[in-house]
Amino acid sequence: MMAPLEGLRVVEVSIGLSAVGAGLAGSLPGSLLRDLGADVTRVRSAHRPALDAGVEFARVWDRGKEIVEIGGADSGTDPARGAETIGALARDADVLFLAGPEEEIERRGLRYQELARANPRLVVVRVRPSRNALGAIPDLELLVHARSGLLTQIRGHRPGPVFGDLAVAAAGAGLSAAVGALARLYEREATGRGGWAETSLYEGLQAVLPMIIGKVEHHSATTTLLWKNQGPAEALAYRCADGGYVQLWFGAKGAYEAFLEHMGDPPSERGYNADMMSGALVERGERWAKRFATRDRDWWVKDLSGHKFRCEPVWRPGEALRDPHLREVGLSEDHQDPERGAMTVLGPAVRVTPAGGGGPRRAASAASLLSDVRVLDLSAYLAGPVTPLVLAELGADVLKVEPTGGDAHRAMEPMFAAGQRGKRAMALDLKSPEAPAVLERLFRWADVVHHNSRVGLAERLGYDEAAVRAANPEAVYSFASGFGDRGPRALLPANDQLMQALAGIEAGQGGAGRPPTYLVWGAVDVTGGWIAACGVLAGLYARRRHGGGQAVSSSLLGAALTLKSGAFLAGEEVVEGPVLDADQTGYGAAYRIYQGRDQKWFALAVPDTTAWDRLRDVVRIDGLPAAPPPLRTDRDGRRQPAEALLEEAFRTKDAAAWVTELRHAGVPVEPVVEADRTEFAAGFVDDPVNRVLGRVAVHEWGDRGRVEQPCFPPHLGPAPRPPVPATIPRLGEHTMSALQELGFDDGERAALAESGAVRGEPPT
């Protein structure tokens, strides 16, 4: 069975980057394309940064890639030799990913214009150093978090900013880089020419955090909850008698009421959403915590299974790889490492397989990106709609189909807004007798059919793959499930928070020996949307190149595990990577946040021994080791002696003074922006550089008035993106015009509306 990218040659260059500081930005694009069938050559520095000492992420991220090592700019070797090696590889490549500082990339002569002259079909994707109105930001996750204000968007165990364990900036950069490459490859099949795409860690935050980055003229209760405040105060994670934790979820209809009855708790007068937004859940949570402390975790997981509400264990990073379900759905696989021996690692998070007949698709040579692609969006909530939004921002015509009463998330406006911009909207009752005839025409109209329904629901409502293929054998059919389409967990409802628990995200953010910390960001949901978009783009590329329909399979569980994909099993040992300390300040003396005399915080990120020497020259204290201590990787999270020395030294001056001195000495450092949610969002949408570069979408949205949101990366060239409408559609806004486009005449449209099968506005 032919993989969608079989025969493609990809070169992934990552020079001068730390795996801890920016690893997913430089490794995830090649890994995704490798899993989709491409041959990947990875070019990396022969010298590892001191920050990565003892961290084994590369064992997982680099597997299945041919490794080429070259000297970095500070290695004493001739940079021209490395550039010649990369240039020679690029001349025979289809895609070239370039990640690293400008002195490692552009100053070696690795620029798109020169590379394209040697290989006009080459797609070049650059993960650039970050920049906003305050200037450049080094490619270090911690510093991007500090500059953006993200460290104050975490409910930690103490007041003030908290170190962010989840590498959302690097993940967003890597995902948008992969999307840029796949979109350009699809276009190349029409034009015969390559092109470029670019993104950055700073833009990666905007790619993964649209649920919490938004600005409205008139707030509602739900925009206040997520765009003004930091989301629900009660995280629903509880410590059990054996020290393990469980995570609850009440997202399904009637789940909250069923849990209250099961636990013997008083009924709620106003319901789950009202209790969540009012803070009433906090009081209930205190009672529940006492109950959960009376039994072991396994007892609670068994007792609370099989109900409308959900309960999952909170695992450390990598522990999920032991779960038999992952093996059954292909999310864990064996790998033989030359040093570690037998390992268990994360398998492909998205799979694309040929399905249905047909020959190669011939496209008009003028087709720009996805301007000839029509997408039927049958998804809901947040994870599902992000995929068609990514496609819409690349020029696709996306038609969202939702119930006549509206998508469940229209009432949760920040989540709805995060995934619905730039689409047309049709309201259709899929349970009505008239729905199959409408769906059949929609299937014939669409190039892509995408949904994220529970396993089995598409079959019951008539948009399963067999039904789609009967009408359109050449469609790209994308199913983004919760736990996968088979296995013991397949039928269970899933959401972002449960996946954070299973993938180790909550435990990792909680810190050593502390309760889990839930990140109310929607990052897992949105990552799932980006991963499915990669699969759809690969499917479109394969269909245009080889012909035939394509089936795309992804899952929310796979998305969560991708964010922690550096973790693995070595035999029975869990190797999870750097461990956050109990105070949630960082991974060790060289990579954490510190307080100055004025109680203000700043972030210190020392990537190498040169920067450490400069730090020692500035602080001038006895006892600091000659080299930066390796980051802590033991679960006990023991503090390093150097941390105590630096904490004491930094308390002698204000944070701003230390930032000035350390920057002047060439030590990577950033003041921690302490922002509430409104200020955090404004930092992106009001930033002059973001506005000039077109990173902000501004539109009117009903009662909310003027809305400002981040646009998705990457930037693309040399030709500009197709124009994309910025607005969020009203319920049924395009129902009648879409039905007319599908060939329903005036009488048929009127009959559908009269029967209640559709809801819509008259076509304009």
UniProtKB/TrEMBL annotation:
Query: Where does the source fall among the domains of life?
Result: Bacteria
Quick check: keyword Transferase in the entry?
A: yes
GO terms assigned for molecular function: transferase activity
Q: SUPFAM superfamilies from the xrefs? A: CoA-transferase family III (CaiB/BaiF)
The record, for InterPro entries, names: CoA-transferase_III, CoA-Trfase_fam_III, CoA-Trfase_III_dom3_sf, CoA-Trfase_III_dom_1_sf
Keyword terms? Transferase
Q: What is this protein called?
A: CoA transferase
Q: Which organism is it from?
A: Actinomadura physcomitrii
